[in-house]
Each structure stands twice: as C-alpha cells, then as structure tokens.
C-alpha cells in the first residue's frame, strides 16, 4: 500500500502509547481513523487532540478481550466509513512475575489481552477486507519478546511468541489464497510508553485482588520497579508511527526497531539449531 489519503485505519489500544502514535501518523497521512480503547479518559484526550488536528476520526470505547466488542468495533467502522483498509491489532498489556507465583487471574488477563485479542481482530476483520477485494494491510503489534526470551516475564514472552506464530501462519494462509491483504508483525524493544501502568486500565473481570500474596511480595514490587525502568528509559516514541507506515509501504512483514537485539535473536536461533540448552548465565 502506497497511498493512504482517504483510506480507513482502525487502531486498537489507540488512546495510549504505540497505538496513539499509529493513530497520529494515520491522521497525518489524511486517513480516516477509528481509535478504539478501554481507557475512557484516554479517549476523551484523543477526542480533543484529533479535533484540533481537523482529523476525520471516531473513538470507540471497547474491550479487546471480548469478541463481541471486536464485532461491535467492526460494525461501527463500516457503518461510519463503509470500509477498513488498515487494521492495527495493537492493544496489549504487561504482566511481570514467576509463573508459579502469579494469580490465575493475571495469567488469564495477559493471554486474553495480548493473544486472544489479536486472534479476535483477525477473525472479525479479515472477512470484511476479503469481501472488499481491495488492497488492505494488517499490523499485529507483538514485541522483540516474541523473538527472544529472558527470565523476567514468562507470560509476556508466551503471548508475544504466540502473536508472532499466529501472524506468520495467517500470513501464509492469505498468500496461499492469493489475498490482497498484506500483513506485518511489529516487534519493538522498549519504547517510552505507559505500558507499565496498564493495570490502571484492566477490565473489571480481571481486577487485581490486592490481598493476594503475590501483590504483597517483594518479587511483585521488584518486578514493577524493573518494568517501569526499562519502559521509561526506552527509545522515544516519536519515530514509531513513521517506521511502521514505511514498513506498510514496503510490504515488510517483520518490523524491528531495535538493531541491538538482532545478534541476540540470531544467537537464539543458532542455539536452537545447535540444540544447546538455554543458559541463564547469559543474562548475568
């Protein structure tokens, strides 16, 4: 896709962080933008901002962990704009902690937010795009955490690996049927966003029980401090929108923004092929 003016972009998690940057870039390119989020205050801020930009946009309050909400998002988009040209399957959360310590509720929360939501978006929007029979693009926001692993956040790595595997397999299916839909999977490292505060936007069904032993533990406190540090010291978000849109223009599947991780990705692949055991000393 080379031309964006007048086309329609749908962005989940569009009120904050990477989603917000993608929505801004879409507006700059004179696209019609549908900004979906569970953060009501964030949507209010976006409403004010995008009106100031004289953008053609719509905000939708929705929960990506509910399939019916994803259907509602698609219906509102088609009712207002009649088509969808780019889907940014972007919404996601971060959960730190050892798998044997995490409350089951937290495990469900991150799987539904980071993986089910991506599957829901593909399930709902691909048939719409196919029916249009026009050039379309889907960008699934994963992470470099889908290409490497470390001890810090196993549930996060699990969902991001799943996202990339899903994206690759669906892309093969679309190629196989000669679809006009192109795909990308966005795999950034740490970016200066508000991801470390994602718990403020949890759906009620995944509400934190602060009496749970995990939330009283030192490991929770240490994990939150570390998560906050690596996110707030990540790369500036300014170039993210431009980088992703350039990849769409180039029909580039893997979008990597942090070259310092490339040797680690290569080493991991080599270790797999050489059947070498994972060694935690690598991180010391």
UniProtKB/TrEMBL annotation:
GO molecular function, one term: oxidoreductase activity, acting on the CH-OH group of donors, NAD or NADP as acceptor
Top-rank taxon, per record: Bacteria
Keywords: Oxidoreductase
Keyword Membrane among UniProt keywords: no
Coiled coil: none
Family: Belongs to the short-chain dehydrogenases/reductases (SDR) family.
UniProt protein name: Short-chain dehydrogenase
Native species: Sporanaerobacter acetigenes DSM 13106
């Amino acid at each position: 896709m080379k031309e964006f003016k007048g086309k329609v972009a749908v962005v989940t998690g569009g009120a904050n962080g990477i989603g917000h940057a993608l929505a801004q870039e879409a507006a700059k390119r004179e696209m019609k933008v549908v900004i979906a989020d569970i953060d009501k205050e964030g949507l209010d801020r976006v409403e004010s901002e995008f009106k100031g930009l004289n953008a053609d946009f719509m905000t939708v309050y929705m929960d990506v962990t509910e399939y019916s909400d994803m259907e509602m998002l698609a219906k509102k988009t088609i009712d207002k704009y009649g088509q969808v040209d780019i889907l940014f399957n972007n919404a996601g959360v971060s959960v730190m902690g050892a798998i044997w310590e995490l409350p089951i509720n937290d495990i469900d929360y991150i799987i539904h937010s980071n993986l089910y939501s991506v599957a829901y978006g593909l399930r709902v929007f691909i048939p719409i795009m196919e029916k249009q029979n026009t050039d379309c693009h889907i960008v699934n926001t994963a992470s470099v955490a889908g290409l490497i692993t470390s001890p810090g956040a196993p549930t996060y790595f699990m969902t991001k690996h799943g996202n990339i595997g899903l994206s690759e397999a669906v892309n093969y299916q679309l190629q196989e049927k000669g679809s006009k839909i192109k795909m990308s999977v966005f795999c950034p490292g740490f970016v200066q966003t508000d991801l470390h505060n994602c718990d403020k936007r949890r759906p009620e069904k995944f509400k934190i029980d602060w009496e749970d032993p995990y939330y009283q533990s030192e490991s929770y406190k240490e994990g939150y401090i570390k998560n906050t540090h690596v996110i707030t010291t990540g790369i500036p978000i300014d170039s993210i929108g431009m980088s992703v849109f350039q990849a769409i223009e180039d029909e580039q599947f893997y979008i990597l923004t942090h070259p310092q991780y490339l040797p680690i990705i290569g080493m991991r692949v080599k270790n797999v092929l050489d059947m070498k055991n994972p060694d935690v000393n690598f991180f010391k």
